[in-house]
Amino acid sequence: MADDPRTDGGELIARTLKAAGVERVFALHGGHLEAFYRGCRRHALELVDFRHEATAGHAAEGHARTTGRLGVCVVTAGPGYLNAIPAMVNAQLDGVPTLFIVGAPPLREAECGSLQGGFDQVAMATPGVKWAHRITNPERVPDLLAMAIRKATTGRRGAVLIEVPIDVMHMPVREAEVTLPAGLSTHPRPAPAPAEVQAALALLRGAARPVIVCGGEARFAQCEVVLRTFAERAGIPVFVNGRAFGMLPWDHPLYGSEAANLGALQAAGQAPDVVLILGAKAGMALGGRRPLVLPKAAKLIHVLADAEEIGRIRDIDVPIAADCGSAIEALLAASEGARWPDWSAWARSATDAKNGHARQHTTAELAHGIHPFHAAKAVIDVAGPSASYVLDGGESGLWAAHSIRVDGPGQYINNGYLGLLGAGMGFAIGAQLARPGKRVVQIAGDGAVGFHLQDLDTMVRRRLPIVTVVLNNRVWGMSLHGQQLLYGEDYDAISRLSDETSYARIAEGFGCHAETVKRAADVAPAMQRALDSGRPALIDVHTDPSCTHPRVNFMLKPIAEGDVVIPYYESIPQRR
Q1: Is residue 186 a part of any domain in this protein?
Q2: What b/e string do you get for 338-354 counting C-beta neighbours within 10 Å, with b at 16 or more?
Q3: Which residues lie below 8 Å from residue 185, measured CB to CB, with a gap of 6+?
């Protein structure tokens, strides 16, 4: 009736996403979602489809990491949901604001042996995401979806899951009964207490070798401008973990690149004595329980939204539960007109640590292929600092990270805390759609790139000029090298790949520009041709399989003689 307008769950999902400022949804078709697709058409939400749900999820992640805003992935029930779980967990562990909406069999057919049912998707997701919820009434879609968006984008950001059963998705509901999507404008920026600000400034001013280490929360706080102002005023060098590359431009005199470079400073007898950790959680990226990155004797100031995370692993001298942008603004305001020590010599020495790999690895052409450091460096030198870079792989990512040069945050994405291989295709697609006027370069190992090669098809269909560079050493590099370090050069177990696989020919089959490169001098020209093609492209670069990254050697080195080596984790001390 004209005086009794009605809608459905799918329309309400699309309407709420539009109200939240979402412009693009990453998805793969499934019948549970038809009402939502129709809603997307009505509200001009772009649907980006894929060949695999994992890639769709990673694309939502990649889009969020690039833009600093919410990423949205919508997939169907059962196998679609299961395929997307790695992306959910990856986003949660790295603190990436991502919303996953999944279909489900009808509520009214519970315990009826339904197609793509028979298990509890919400219960399965709950340990791996920030929040998971099943919507059981269509009129509640707006307020519950708004709640999910708030949870994903505030505090310590992360992944949330909303399940919408197909009957809820399609069920008609009176507009008069529909809730409002309250709280979409909630973006709190809690500030530190004045006493905390003064304590932090006192530690920094009294330091001989201070540094700032930025993480993902600093990136999503979008505080790069005020951070740069504070760093320049104080003269403190800035280092980053994998979520915060670009917080200072690569050529800035205070930019020290990877936080792992602090290990090289310690080895050279120049350990920082005060560290301001800005939005990075304690764990692998900061050396874990071992003082590999953060010196044992250093005083620590830790700024993080989640107070429960502050103090994990070791005591913090000045804990600050606050938004990273608010914290830096407070430090800047409180130090207005203050005189800072002259740390210029220290800053030059600290930031020079990022050049150590170029000095160490001087030979580009090796017996069985190109050195991976030089292969990646040649690619990055051609693409330049305005490009976005996606790294996917074990050692290949480590080699490439040393040469990454970007002008701003969100231009670099790596595997993160889950150590998940195969995410690169989705990351690259999400990043390219977020920056349509810029180039995206994916640098992947041959093992990692094999997980989702089929989404080269997505790049071609969407005319996305992403360049994928495969560092092809014909082995699972980190696995093989770890085995050889533990058990000798002659040992290997399921860690070799085929010498016959041509990733270039596979890419050509999907319609990409493609080349194979076997000499170091040919990498840069091939990269330039790939960029000039204006098409999705893949360069298959043959690298030497014997190159073991120094970090792998370090991770498999016992702390003391007789310790039991646990690959990639702490050694077990020998009982004495």
Answers
A1: no
A2: eeeeebeebbeebbbbb
A3: none
Instruction: Please state, as a whole number, how many other Cβ atoms lie within 10 Å of the Cβ of residue 128.
Output: 19
Q: How far is CA 546 from the centre of its chain?
A: 28
Six token digits for residue 357: 């790999």
Angstrom distances, CA of residue 469 to CA of 55, 328, 537: 18, 38, 8
Between CA 22 and CA 15 the distance in angstroms is: 10
Tens-level pLDDT at each residue, the chain (576 residues): 457 799 999 999 999 999 999 999 999 999 899 999 999 999 999 999 999 999 999 999 999 999 999 999 999 999 999 999 999 999 999 999 999 999 999 988 777 777 778 899 999 999 999 999 999 999 999 999 999 999 999 999 999 999 999 999 999 999 999 999 999 999 999 999 999 999 999 999 999 999 999 999 999 999 999 999 999 999 999 999 988 999 999 999 999 999 888 988 988 899 999 999 999 998 888 888 888 889 999 999 999 999 999 999 899 999 999 999 999 999 999 999 889 999 999 999 999 988 887 788 889 989 999 999 999 999 999 999 999 999 999 999 999 999 999 999 999 999 888 989 999 999 999 999 999 999 999 999 999 999 999 999 999 999 999 999 999 999 999 999 989 988 999 999 999 999 999 999 999 999 999 999 999 999 999 999 999 999 999 999 999 999 988 888 877 777 677 788 888 888 888 775
Is 561 contained in some domain? Answer: no
Q: How far is CA 286 from the centre of its chain?
A: 16
Which of 362, 374, 346, 363 lies closest to 268 in space, CA to CA? 346
- Domain end call among 355, 390, 411: 355
Q: Which of 146, 177, 208 is the last residue of a domain?
A: 177
In-domain check, residue 572: no
Q: Do residue 476 and residue 409 come from a single domain?
A: yes
Place of tokens 């059962």: 78
- Which residues does the annotation mark as catalytic? 32, 53, 116, 419
| Vertex 384 angle, CA 392 and 353, to 5° | 75
Helix, strand, or coil (residue 428): helix
The phi, psi pair for 258, rounded to 5°, reads -60, 140
| Pair (148, 250) in one structural domain | no
For the chain, the domain total comes to 3
CATH code of 41's domain: 3.40.50.970
Rounded to the nearest 5 degrees, what angle is found at the Cα of 415, between the Cα atoms of 414 and 420? 160
Angle (CA) 246-233-197 rounded to 5° is 90
Residues 256 and 315 in one domain: yes
Q: Are residues 345 and 408 in the same domain?
A: no
- On whether both 212 and 130 belong to a single domain, the answer is no
Q: Are 135 and 12 in contact (CB under 8 A)?
A: no
Please indicate, yes or no, whether residues 471 and 545 belong to a single structural domain of this protein. yes
Residues 370 and 248 in one domain: no
- What are the tokens at 554? 């370090």
Structural domain includes residue 407? yes
Cα–Cα nearest to 496, from 567, 568, 443, 546: 546
Same domain as 390, residue 313: no
CATH number of the domain bearing residue 238: 3.40.50.1220
Instruction: Give residue 255's domain range.
Output: 194-355
